[in-house]
Write a structure and sequence with these properties.
single chain, mainly alpha, 10 helices, globular, transmembrane
Length: 204
Amino acid sequence: MSWNMWLAFLAAAVVIAVSPGPGAVLSMATGLRHGYAVALRAILGLQTALLIQLAIVVLGLGAVLAASATAFLAVKIAGAAYLIWLGVRKWRAPAELLDDGAEAREARGMFLQGLLVNLTNPKAIVFMVALVPQFIDPQLPQWPQFFIIAATMVGTDMVVMSCYALLAGRCRRWLSSPRMMKAQNRVFGGMFVAAGSLLAASSR
């Protein structure tokens, strides 16, 4: 992969990462609720899912998902249901500070939440099927190019999601009253439900 090609892909990766989506909502909500240390677990889950999605594309299974209406619908429904469930759960979360035990339990589940949020989004895989081949030079060995693409996408997304979480975390001290925490829960819960509803209504 040439430098010009890589820079073009980097620009595309930045645009994709910065675009608001369920991953950004999760990063901000977790950073605001728990701080960056816990949000990092969710972000690592998001990146693990991203690597799995890239592997699916490389192995050719992504093309099957893109071509099969049934497979796409099944993954889409699962993803939309999960996002809506997260939203309802967030909406109904108690507007109070968690004790140490509850905080630890929520923290342990953040990696899995991040993993599932990205992994159950079939549009991401279909998008990669359309995007990634355009940056692969067929005249050069392909596996090193796939490695560069994976490292670029994961690195870019990790930085952007970390920025979302850190910026949200800086607001924690001003939004720690029960009234403000209830408002946070309603805002982020609504955003998760909206993201799930949009996914459910989307097409390939």
